[in-house]
Design a protein that fits this description.
By secondary structure, the protein is an alpha+beta fold. It is 31% helix and 41% strand. The chain is built from four helices and seven strands; from the N terminus they run E-H-H-E-E-H-E-E-E-E-H. The protein has a seven-stranded antiparallel beta sheet with strand order 1-7-6-5-4-3-2, with helices on one face. Strand 5 and strand 6 form a beta hairpin. The protein is globular. Pfam families: DUF2505. This is DUF2505 domain-containing protein.
């Protein structure tokens, strides 16, 4: 059975400014450069921003020795994560998008949807993630670990977005 978790990042910037940042390739390139402190192999594999919205594919390699012990029992090699994230065309009331992550020969899936919503004092991105692991006995623990680590990632990305917008927009 899959596990779900929602996380909301609140911003003092208006929704259109956050969307604008996501629509600029340099935003993603700079984010991947920051990830290289943790994992030396990070890249923007593809990026599109047009009237249909934003679509970015990120690829990151995490060394097996950097994985938590529980994950090392399942992953016998370095973990290569491909993450695809989309936001539809900007809607000042409610912009919708999706994201997913895949790992070659990985024992599960991670999918989610995101919503960019204006608030009285800025905006919020609400992300709802669903993790499913197909390994008996440890599936629930791995799903929970994935979701907790994902929240940590989303928190770090929210701080990055705030800083990037302040410096660049």
């Amino acid at each position: 059975m899959a596990r779900r978790l929602s996380y909301s990042a609140r911003y003092t910037h208006p929704a259109e400014k956050l969307y604008q940042a996501h629509s600029i390739k340099q935003y993603w390139d700079d984010m991947m450069a920051g990830f290289q402190m943790i994992s030396p192999h990070c890249e923007v594999a593809s990026f599109t921003s047009d009237e249909n919205g934003v679509k970015v594919v990120l690829r990151q390699t995490i060394g097996r020795d950097q994985l938590p012990p529980l994950a090392q029992t399942v992953m016998m090699k370095d973990m290569v994560i491909t993450r695809e994230e989309t936001l539809g065309p900007f809607d000042p009331d409610h912009t919708k998008g999706t994201y997913n992550a895949s790992i070659p020969a990985g024992p599960g899936s991670l999918n989610g949807w995101q919503e960019l919503i204006p608030t009285d004092d800025g905006c919020t991105i609400r992300r709802t993630s669903e993790a499913k692991v197909f390994v008996p006995f440890v599936n629930g623990k791995l799903e929970q670990m994935i979701l907790i680590n994902l929240v940590d990632l989303f928190r770090a990305e929210a701080e990055y977005a705030k800083d990037w917008i302040d410096k660049n927009l």
